[in-house]
């Protein structure tokens, strides 16, 4: 029996590693895109490709969850973790699409700064998630979670300052509508990374 | 003992059939309303009536869930399904109210098109939900879920195209604020229908 | 063994009492702030202080939940209740920050009215939550929940009327963008209070 369950347990870690790698790919590609300053059909296609591959892994996780009796940690935590990682990739796709639909030039100093913070945060998410395989040694995971929380606070302050500036300097209400949504989405992406730390924290506490 | 539990099990299916019928009523009424081109107090009243009747069924489901030991499928799935069906009806009510509050004429070609897709999607939701009673024969349910997912993708593309057009052609920022919210809500309604397929999929997998 | 578990059970009630008191503090401070008509750095600091203290209690609840075997009511309900109370305090903080960032004068007759309804609703939330310690005697809890639901309906009607007025009278689109978000947040705060009644209702039904 042991043989029957062990490989399944391990496959969850492999699937999460794969899924979080797609989240890292998406956030890094977004950082490059923003600093280069243009979103075209090819860049949207690239992000959508990553999203579809990430979706496939998420579905694999959900399917395995419904079919597996023994899981490496609580079923609800596995479900929540896969959902949050999926949300990260979705949000990168959403922001990129909006930049194109709104015909905004992404080469905006505030967005460049936000994209760097997002990429750092998703990198820390990858460290935390990959650490779960060795959760008896939680120090590296905890350090990543502290960093993700710090970056979420950085993002909150950035958004507040950017909003104040946007309403102060921009005279065109339509430009306000567009950019307000972009920056809000960027900050929400950091909130989603913070949600990952809540799931990871619950997993660690239960195994302590 | 069997006699004591069986009727309760069956009543969940009956309650879901009733609740999803209200969702169908709401979306069909909305489609008619939009094609006729005016929202008045009577139409709002009608939608609110349907919403209240749907609320009553949802409360019945939640009450029975908290009082019943044996349920036809997982308690969390019953809760999630009733919640999502409730969200569908709520969202139809929200859009209708907004049209009235914003003094918009709903006879807008884009909204007419969206309302038709919504009505189709909620129809497919009804097929999927009513099929759960015969979940050992899941083919019809699965086909409905595929259709709901297809219509969600259709809605995504419609919203992107409509947003691009809205920002391109509309000069009045206040009109942009209003219509952007209406179309966004319409697309969210299709997302909620897709959420139903996730719950239904989990139910089918667990019973496979 | 009994000695080992009883104190832990009781501590959940103590923690919830503490958390809901912070929610009451936040909503009362907000009501005062709005009627006085100005948000400065000191007022933001005060709200953030309350939020941090509330956060600490929420973390205490989550930590205890993950470490305790026997809980006074379902684990998922404890988690949901702490989350909703946290959401109340967060939302008060969000609205207060926005008023400052958007440079709005909060002394707006509509917002004053909303703040009074919010303060009443959070007061009723406190009665409901504190009543859980005596849940075998649910009448006071149920009355509070009825009141919270009534106030949510009041808030819905207020928001609809305020939105109609805003779009009717305000000519500046940027002012519409700002105030629309403030009023929407105010109404969402009442929705969160209503979410508390759903959790409380589930707890009562399971103990009936």
Sum up the structure in keywords:
208 residues; mainly alpha; Methane Monooxygenase Hydroxylase, Chain G, domain 1; globular; homotrimer
Give a written overview of the molecule.
- Chain A is an all-alpha fold.
- Chain A has a single domain (2-207), classed as Up-down Bundle (Methane Monooxygenase Hydroxylase, Chain G, domain 1), CATH 1.20.58.
- Chain A has helices at residues 2-36, 41-67, 75-101, 109-131, 139-169, 173-207.
- In chain A, helix 1 (2-36) packs antiparallel against helix 2, helix 2 (41-67) packs antiparallel against helix 3 and helix 3 (75-101) packs antiparallel against helix 6.
- The two termini of chain A are 26 Å apart.
- The relative contact order of chain A is 0.14.
- Mean pLDDT of chain A is 91; it is low at 1-6.
* Strand percentage of chain A: under 5%
- The fourth-level CATH homologous superfamily of chain A is Phosphate transport system protein phou homolog 2, domain 2
Largest sheet of chain A: none
What name does the CATH topology of chain A carry?
Methane Monooxygenase Hydroxylase, Chain G, domain 1
Main interface: chain pair and counts: A-B, 12 and 13 residues
- What is the 3D form of chain A? globular
CATH architecture of chain A, by name, is Up-down Bundle
Q: Strand tally of chain A, please?
A: 0
* End-to-end separation of chain A: 26 Å
Give the oligomeric state of the chains in this entry, treating copies of one chain as homo and distinct chains as hetero: homotrimer
């Amino acid at each position: 029996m042991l043989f029957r369950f062990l490989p399944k347990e391990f496959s969850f870690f492999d699937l999460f590693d794969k899924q979080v790698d797609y989240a890292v790919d998406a956030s890094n590609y977004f950082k490059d895109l923003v600093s280069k300053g243009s979103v075209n059909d090819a860049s949207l296609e690239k992000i959508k490709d990553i999203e579809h591959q990430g979706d496939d892994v998420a579905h694999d996780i959900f399917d395995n969850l419904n079919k597996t009796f023994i899981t490496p940690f609580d079923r609800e935590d596995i479900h929540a973790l896969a959902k949050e990682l999926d949300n990260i990739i979705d949000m990168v796709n959403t922001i990129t699409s909006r930049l194109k639909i709104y015909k905004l030039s992404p080469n905006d100093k505030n967005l460049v700064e936000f994209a760097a913070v997002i990429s750092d945060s998703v990198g820390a998410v990858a460290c935390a998630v990959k650490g779960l395989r060795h959760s008896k040694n939680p120090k590296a995971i905890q350090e990543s979670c502290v960093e993700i929380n710090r970056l979420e606070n950085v993002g909150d302050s950035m958004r507040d300052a950017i909003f104040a500036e946007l309403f102060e300097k921009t005279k065109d209400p339509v430009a306000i509508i567009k950019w307000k949504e972009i920056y809000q989405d960027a900050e929400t992406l950091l909130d989603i990374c913070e949600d990952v730390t809540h799931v990871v924290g619950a997993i660690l506490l239960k195994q302590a």
